[in-house]
């Protein structure tokens, strides 16, 4: 009996041991499968195959539901894909496993930014810092939140910290460039976009924003070139494609290449046929080219899409006047006033039309109302004086010419609706924007004929500086300033190369040239201060040399 019990105990022990070995083997197999799926997900993510990467991370969670890394990866991908609620659900899973997961808090900050809650986003990024988790991505997100909260100087500090933590991250350079451009520090912004593009030459958004900065500085050829490069580099489905086409059209229009501009506006409308802004842009150019029927069609469609848009009503009124339908034109401008009685545009437009129809007293009343709303508008004041002279001429025989003195007036000269966007209102507040087509002064200086070669020389010099080949950089940078003496960035870059070579006096002279061209150029000012300090410390290259 005792032998039988011992035999049963031995059999039971063998069974338990076998079960434990089987469970261990299954666990090891599951762990290996989870690891393989995770590595596959990372690889797919790097290749841009985001949906397949999501599936791979889901496979990880099937094998190991407690994998915080897989949940964080999924949350980040879902954010990139704009699937915010799914991302939020994954983050809840992360926090269920570990409420103090710092990367989870960073992703929560990114989620809140995507939802438009900058204050909540900033709190999440500050929580990361409180956990001693400071990374480039955390400071970059913090900078974005501060910018959206209207605190641009603090945002610049955060982006600067992000850059110092990771110099090879193009996103931090890009985001700081956007804030600099919003502060109208266009040269500094362009330098940051240059750094982003040196790290990622096909960074479409950086090309797009650099194009806007060039346009703001009046460099329309360079703006056009960057918009074209952005369109070529952008992936399928790039959300800014229609805007890039429209703004490239604006740059071409500013250079007087009207047919090419029309082609771009038409291509933009093919992508976004219900865009009131693009319709108004194309209509404005068609009107200036005297193609009033086509302009009226675009403007009529804009009013159909947005019947309460004062700019669209004013613009359509202009086309109606140009085609002789004056009462209909006045009706549109009256509706524009009713929609926005505190906007000078409607009063100015109707007053101009009444003036050109010879109804001077009515015109003067409208123009005086407009002047109260826009007292700095010199054109408006001039037109009001002419209307007043016309009204007075009614009671003074022989002075009928008074109202028509000055430039010849035509009905189509009355104010046209400049689409709120070229620069347009769809861009985020504070974003850099391109100049409006048709708004450049006729006497504005054209870009230098050799601006392209200047840009190429400058780019080559910058590349050599980044490789710390300062002596070699001097030749292309000298070429750049010779080809375009108004290129402040090239003077600053050459000054930097000279400073690194210990030639401080020459460097300071170049920084002075850059600052004379752009007094707000902070990089040039900081470089000048650094060169001056080094020279005062006794730079050997600046000491008088013994003469033989």
Task: Describe the structure in your own words.
- It contains 26 helices and no strands.
- The chain has helices spanning 2-46, 50-63, 68-80, 84-97, 102-115, 118-130, 136-148, 152-165, 170-182, 186-199, 204-216, 220-233, 241-254, 258-271, 276-288, 292-305, 310-322, 326-339, 344-356, 360-373, 378-393, 451-466, 470-483, 488-500, 504-517, 522-536.
- The protein has 548 residues and is mainly α.
- Helix 8 runs antiparallel to helix 9, helix 16 packs antiparallel against helix 17 and helix 18 (326-339) packs antiparallel against helix 19.
Short key terms for the protein model shown above:
single chain, 548 residues, mainly alpha, 26 helices, 71% helix
Largest sheet descriptor? none
Task: List the helices and strands in order.
Answer: HHHHHHHHHHHHHHHHHHHHHHHHHH
What best-fitting shape do the alpha-carbon axes yield? globular
The helical percent reads over 70%
* Residue windows where pLDDT falls under 50 for at least 5 positions: 20-27, 398-414, 416-452, 539-548
Distance between the termini: 118 Å
Strand content: under 5%
Structural class of the helix and strand makeup? mainly alpha
Number of strands: 0
């Amino acid at each position: 009996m005792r032998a039988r019990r011992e035999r049963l105990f031995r059999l039971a022990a063998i069974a338990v041991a076998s079960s434990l070995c089987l469970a261990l083997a299954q666990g090891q197999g599951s762990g290996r499968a989870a690891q393989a799926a995770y590595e596959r997900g990372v690889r797919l993510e790097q290749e841009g195959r985001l949906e397949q990467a999501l599936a791979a991370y889901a496979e990880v969670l099937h094998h190991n539901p407690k994998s915080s890394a897989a949940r964080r990866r999924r949350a980040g991908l879902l954010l990139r894909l704009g699937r915010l609620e799914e991302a939020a659900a994954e983050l809840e899973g992360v926090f269920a496993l570990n409420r103090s997961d710092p990367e989870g808090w960073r992703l929560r900050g990114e989620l809140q930014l995507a939802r438009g809650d900058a204050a909540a986003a900033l709190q999440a990024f500050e929580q990361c810092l409180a956990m001693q988790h400071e990374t480039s991505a955390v400071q970059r997100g913090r900078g974005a939140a501060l910018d959206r909260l209207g605190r641009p100087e603090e945002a610049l500090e955060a982006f600067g910290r992000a850059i110092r933590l990771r110099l090879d991250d193009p996103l931090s350079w890009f985001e700081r460039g956007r804030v600099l451009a919003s502060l109208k520090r266009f040269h500094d912004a362009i330098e940051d976009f240059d750094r982003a593009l040196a790290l990622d030459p096909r960074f479409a958004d950086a090309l797009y924003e650099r194009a806007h900065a060039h346009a703001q500085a009046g460099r329309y050829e360079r703006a056009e070139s960057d918009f074209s490069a952005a369109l070529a580099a952008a992936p399928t489905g790039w959300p800014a494609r229609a805007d890039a086409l429209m703004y490239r059209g604006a740059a071409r229009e500013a250079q007087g290449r009207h047919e090419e501009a029309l082609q771009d506006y038409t291509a933009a409308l093919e992508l976004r046929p219900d865009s009131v802004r693009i319709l108004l842009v194309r209509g404005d150019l068609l009107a200036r080219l005297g193609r009033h029927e086509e302009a009226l069609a675009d403007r009529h469609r804009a009013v159909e899409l947005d019947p309460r848009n004062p700019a669209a009503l004013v613009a359509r009124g202009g086309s109606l006047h140009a085609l002789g339908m004056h009462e209909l034109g006045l009706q549109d401008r009256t509706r524009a006033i009713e929609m926005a009685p505190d906007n000078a545009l409607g009063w100015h437009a109707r007053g101009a039309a009444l003036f050109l129809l010879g109804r001077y007293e009515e015109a003067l009343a409208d123009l005086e109302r407009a002047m109260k709303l826009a007292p700095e508008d010199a054109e408006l004041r001039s037109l009001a004086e002419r209307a007043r002279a016309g009204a007075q001429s009614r009671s003074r025989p022989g002075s009928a010419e008074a109202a028509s003195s000055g430039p010849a007036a035509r009905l189509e000269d009355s104010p046209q609706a400049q689409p709120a966007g070229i620069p347009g209102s769809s861009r985020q507040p504070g974003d850099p924007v391109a100049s409006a087509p048709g708004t450049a002064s006729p006497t504005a200086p054209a870009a230098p004929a050799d601006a392209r070669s200047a840009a190429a020389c400058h780019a080559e010099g910058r590349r050599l500086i980044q490789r710390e080949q300062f002596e070699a950089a001097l030749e292309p940078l000298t070429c750049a300033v010779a080809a375009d003496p108004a290129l402040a960035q090239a003077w600053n870059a050459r000054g930097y190369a000279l400073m690194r070579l210990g030639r401080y006096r020459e460097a300071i002279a170049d920084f002075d040239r850059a600052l004379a061209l752009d007094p707000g150029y902070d990089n040039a000012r900081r470089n000048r201060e650094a060169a001056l300090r080094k020279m005062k410390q006794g730079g050997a290259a600046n000491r008088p040399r013994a003469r033989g």
